């Protein structure tokens, strides 16, 4: 769920709760997350709650001590603030509920730059989101990681199409030398009201 201050409430966009199996990934992921053209203007702030669960997922540890995603729920509040000049800063704090145990699961800091925006007259929106994470060992083998997530998409009537090519790099041992990992994330959604939308992410 995303909350904006009352004077900006008309810009509020719904976040849909997804129950997504993540068994194809080795690590406990916080969610399938797709960045779109939502960005705070200078001086605006927002609070968003990312909530996901994996009722049936990976049950085999990829490394000693790993917290697998099977029957795991991740809760991640995120505070974002508009810096102006098409820039937005964000900060996440993650928690994980596994086997009825609620634990701290790391922090992330990000900077989003969105120079192309349809509301400014561009034919599509595009930009990049750069993120640094500090994640305890049970959730990822390397404590520090970096992510560069490119953003491209378009609104077509009530529909939103967004695509993110993603480059991830471990910044600490033991995986700091393994090189970049490439992945993608996609969202297709349809606005139901000015405040609510339904869709899917992959």
Query: Biggest sheet: strands, sense, closure?
Result: 11 strands, mixed
Order of helices and strands: EEEEEEEEEEE
Fold-level CATH name = Porin
The total number of structural domains is 1
Provide the residue-averaged pLDDT: 85
Q: Please give the CATH architecture.
A: Beta Barrel
Brief summary of the model shown:
With 202 residues, this protein is mainly beta. The chain has strands at residues 2-3, 18-19, 45-54, 72-84, 87-98, 101-116, 125-134, 144-156, 159-170, 181-191, 197-201. The chain is globular.
Task: Tell me what you see in this structure.
Strands 1, 2, 3, 4, 5, 6, 7, 8, 9, 10 and 11 form an eleven-stranded mixed sheet that branches. Strand 4 (72-84) and strand 5 (87-98) form a beta hairpin. It is built from no helices and eleven strands. Residues 3-28 have low confidence and may be disordered. With 202 residues, it is mostly beta strands. The two termini are 19 Å apart. The protein has one domain: Porin (Beta Barrel).
List the helices and strands and how they pair.
Elements: E1 2-3, E2 18-19, E3 45-54, E4 72-84, E5 87-98, E6 101-116, E7 125-134, E8 144-156, E9 159-170, E10 181-191, E11 197-201
Features:
202 residues, Porin, mainly beta, eleven-stranded mixed beta sheet, disordered N terminus
